[in-house]
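assembly run, all chains below
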Amino acid sequence: MDRLQVLCFAGTYALALASDLARVVVRAPLRWYATLTLTAIGFAVHTAFLLHRLVVGNALQAPTVFESFLLVAWLVAATTLYLSVRASRKTAVGIFLLPIVLGLAGAAAFAPRASWADWGGWAAFWGTVHGLFLLVGAAASAVAFAAGLMYLLQARRLKLKQPIRFGFVLPSLEQSERLNRGGVAVAFPTLTIGLVIGVILGWAMRANDRATISWTDPKVLSGLAMWLVFAVLAHAQFRWAMRGRRVMILSIIAFGFLIFALVGVDLLLPTAHGVPGHEDPARAATSRLTSPDDLSDTIEFTSKTLTLPSPLRSLPIPDLGMMSPFPSANPRPSPAFPTKPGRSAS
Amino acid sequence: MRFLALGVDHRSAPASVREALAFDGEKRERGLRHLVSEFPGLEAVVLSTCNRVELHLAADDLDGVPHRDEVARFLSRFHQCPLEFFVGHLRDYPDEQAVRHLFRVAASLESLVLGEGQILGQVKEAYQAAIHARTVGPILHSVFQNALRVGKKVREVTGLDQGKVSVASVAVDLARDVFDSFADKTVLVIGAGKMAELTLTHLAALKPGRVVIVNRNPERARLMAERFQGNPRPFDQLFNALVEADLVVSTTASDQPIVGLELFTRVQQARRNRLVLILDLAIPRDFDSSIGELDQVLLYNVDDLNGQAELNRRARRQGIEMAQAIIESETLACLNALRHQRAAGELQRMLGARFDEIRQRELERLFAARPDLSEADRQAIAHMTHRLQNQFLHQPRAALRSAVAETPHGDQPHPILTAVRHLFGLGPHRETVKPVG
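ok done. output:
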């Protein structure tokens, strides 16, 4: 059902994108109004959907990957709407930002719906704060990425002294630079705070004998690499020698690292991050090879408290995805922690 | 229904003739009043710009519009200008050609600079002046409203107004592609010649925060700075001026580059690699072309700007064919709509007259048969029959009004018009304007 709802506003965003692309053949001001109206309608439905999930679905206490993607998409859509109204009507802003919104909405449609944060107490609170910071950072980074792309295309056109083609008027270099700077200014501190909270949470969970992941897990290492790239990017903003093109290229690279750290690692590398109860990546990899039939059990699994073998005590099973808003897209229960109702304790 | 457009433009007449026939200021309203008083029943609009002087005339009757020569004589009398001075330069467009010509004018196809936007405002101004002078009737109302709509439509659909076609205006567009706001920017002009002045006039529209003028001749720099509220600087302070500038316009007559790569690299270091746009409009060039390869530096010379202007001109020309097709179809639609409106109006009148005739005849027959009826009774009966007539005709009249509101297809009368004509025996259709299409 929620896929259908996502399809409703994603479809409206897609129509807005099509309307923006129609600038190749349609130059009438009506096209701009159509694009803006469609984006606004998509955004309104998107907002209503998220509010519904928040109020009825209890999304704040038990966020899922699905909602995380949609929240980032919502933040990027809000930025698109703001820039579309603020920029000149001829400027092609939606063409750069709406594909990101659509990509996130598409990813959300196929993301797991299981909650990863049925922890309760301080862990649940700080897990949510950790996730929210990373989400805001991801959205700001997406805006910086789009601004970087617009800057590079505009700078290339101006350097090569080419005319504007097919009605694709880009924002001025100064506008794109300002937007990029704003995106990085929000992304770097929020990502840093989000990661620091995640690290402290990991330590705290170790100290409380809760299951957590290794510091050498690919998710942790990719997160660190992403942070380093963002640190370089933030530093480059203050280095006059790197102004312009170099900063924009770095923004695009940083966004690539962010996507890899948040989504790519889960899809490509053996990580225990987001796989409940795993400390060992090798075991996590094994768990990924379990039958797809186990997926239904996973949902049940994440909301249960299991009696774990010694020396672990009975504890609520945390989905370690709370270390990131995007835990494994396909979390699997470990054979060591069977999920059959008869062996779990509520 | 007849039309006539007659006048001179930049192609048909020299500036002296256009000046002699111009309707400036209050002359336009006076001219319009004279015209309609001389030719009763005439609707008239005068379009008078620096590139054209045209009279757009229309009348309901087939003989309502004066002949070309009569209008020429009127112009001669009104402007007190010998006929032979301008008559050879006059161009006239009868009937549907007049409508087509007005649409072409509004769409800027007849302008000196294809796609220029000023003419649409001038057509609107001419129309409003004629409304003010009460010389516009239903025909020219419809035609001019359509002309304004078509002018906008052509620009929107074909992009005829896209891209600037003069070097100075291309420079302004470039500046807008690079910078977002200009209130915090410094414009540096090197040289104080005509080109510098022309470019600065265009750039002044951007309202830059600061204008600095550097010239070898300090007096000329001072004079130009006064005109543009800028700051004059001696030539030996060029380095400092370059460091402060965001947009540089260079137009000196130096036979060698005045800024080399090494110097500008130092400038960029001093200005912490901020974005800079350099418009080198001098021939030979003032800036070494390799400066353009530096990061954060955009260097355009006069050939680049000319090339951009030529590309824009070419792009505009590509839209002409589409513009002509739009104008052709809109001309036909406008004339057909007018013809249908006139036909429907005529039917309304005929319908009323027919029923009035029947009612009067029957009343006379009744009153002849009943001479005993008092005057009050007669008036009551006449009033009753009048109300009955109105009630009977209410629906046919409403149907005719709705038929007029619909867009006509081709030159065939709307089926409702034909039906009303046959149902009420109103006789054959009489053409009030030559059908087109």
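The longest strand of chain B covers residues 2-9.

Strands of chain B lie at 2-9, 42-48, 52-59, 91-94, 186-190, 210-215, 231-234, 247-250, 276-280, 297-301.

not gonna interpret more than that til we talk
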